[in-house]
Fold this protein.
Amino acid sequence: MTSRRDFFKYAGIAGGAVAASAVSRVAMAALPEPVIQTSPNTMAPLVPNSGRTYNPVVTLNGWTLPWRMNQGVKEFHLVSEPVVREMAPGFKAHLWGYNGQSPGPTIEVVEGDRVRIFVTNKLPEHTSIHWHGQRLPNGMDGVAGLNQPAIPTGKTFVYEFVARRPGTFMYHPHADEMTQMAMGMMGFWVTHPKVKNPLIDEVQRDFCFLLNAYDIDPGSYTPKIMTMLDFNLWSWNSRIFPGIDSFNVRLNDKVRIRVGNLTMTNHPIHLHGHEFLVTGTDGGPTPKSTRWYEVTTDVAVGQMRQIEFLADEEGDWAFHCHKSHHTMNAMGHNVPTLIGVDHRGVAKKINNLIPDYMVMGERGMADMAEMEMPIPDNTAPMMTGEGPFGSVEMGGMFSVLKVRRDQKPGDYSNPGWFKHPKGTVAHEYTGPLAEPARFKSEGGQSMPRSQKPAIPTEVKVRKPSSSHDNH
Ligand SMILES: [Cu+2]
């Protein structure tokens, strides 16, 4: 058995010669108490009470893990365990995560910090943690089998390294990854700069979240882990709209949002009303010469993007993934498109056989929000965000940036709906309507078609209902 003194000596070797290793029961007495959090609310930033100071981040519907300073080393304790995550009000999922939540808590440190992370495995199978994007000794990189033995159920391993590069990183298992990431095991990591860095600006608001995806059948609680592409819940920090908190800022705040993608597809993240710069990736801050203004940036699989903008337009601005099926929830995949199909007669006939039969979709999917379809228990309702002007027909990866003149500095609370100045909201036109004039000067084709003129065809667009794997 290793004594406590030996343990610290052992754990203190950070040169890379020793891989992350099991901690004995005796040494467990020296572990920092794990901090567990079960609320899905966005927690106030964790102001550092030891070590070098910095401007802390706010984790969307999440929190930052407190640490213990032990002779100049920041000690954290992560617990890999099954968790129950409320993904939206009324919808809970049985996931795996860290310290009571999925994703796990954000870890915030300062460039140059010596960091020691204890990882206790309370999962029914082995695990490991890979510190995505970090410069560290090879034996601390967390690939089970390659850099360390996997952490068996019930054991605690310790990782130790120096946070060498400032930037935006993440952590996730590198053991049975497909299962463990499909179950929600991941977390955010921010390394703040030690001294003023010319490529890292001061900001008033600094948010972070991970893009993740699940395949949970309507009415069930546990994700299907063999799903490769066909996920049905698109989430930010394991929350789906309308369960995702808004980004509440003060007018003229400089805002940074850090986004990491641990889904199996790319997400074009789109902000309304402002232009942003991509100021960092998981490779660190981007050189200034590479930055240009965007309103959408694609975050590919396994990537991080750090965007920055001046919040100088008041209002409630949509902020979402631009793939339209990623702003939908719990869809059945075999629903044929019925737009334009008048099936009233058919419905009446079926109604004689099945009294509750309901036809949906002939005017588009918006009807579904109004219809309040009977759905199985614990199913994410398809579209339920209730805005000031009616239903916001969104789900999944959607939130709102709220820019307010009277938001107090450092106040992250939700200010409610924007009160639009008189005459600045789109409204119905009630004046006289003119007959539409036909545009006369249509152009021709680039060249005539070579076949004999065919009978003109006209098609109605209908999405394929049998195959749905082109996400
Ligand atoms: Cu997306």
Observations:
- Confidence is low (pLDDT under 50) at residues 1-19, 332-338, 466-471.
